[in-house]
Amino acid sequence: xxxxxxxLYRQVIMDHYKNPRNKGEITDGSVTxxxxxxxxxxRIQLHLKVEDGKIQQAKFDGxxxxxxxxxxxxxxxxxxxxxxxxxxKLATIFYSMMLGKEYDEENFDLGDIExxxxxxxxxxxxxxxxxxxxxxxxxxxxxxxxxx
Length: 148
Description:
The protein contains 4 helices and 3 strands. It is α+β, with helices and mostly antiparallel strands. It has a 3-stranded antiparallel beta sheet, with helices on one face. A hairpin with a 2-residue loop joins strand 2 and strand 3. Helix 1 packs across helix 2, helix 2 runs parallel beside helix 4 and helix 3 runs antiparallel to helix 4. It is globular.
C-alpha cells in the first residue's frame, strides 16, 4: 500500500473515531448487545432495530481504541438499510479482509470500511476491528430468536 493511501486510510479512521456516526442508543423495539475485548479494554454496546428482515436502525456506544470505535461507526453506517442476509454477507467480507484474504468486493461497496484493511498487518488489533461486527452478528441472531 502506498504511503499516500495509508495516510488517507488513517485520516478516515481518525475521522470516524473523532466524529462517530450513529453514536447513541435506540430506545424502542431494539436489541442491545454488549461486547468487550478484554485484551485491550474495548467495550461496545450495539443497538439494532430489525424489522421485516431488514436492519432499520443501528447505533452504538462504548469506549476503546480508535480502531474499535471507528469500525463500529463504519459498520453501523454500512448495515443500516441492509437485509439481515446482506449484513451477514458484508460481515463475512469484512472478516476476510481482516485476515488478509481475498474478498468479494464486487457485490458490496465497502466505502470507508476499506480504510481498515491495514489492520490485517497487526494481528493483535484485528479483535479491535471485529468487535462491533461480532456484536452485529449476535444482535441479528437474537432478533431472529425473538421472532420465533
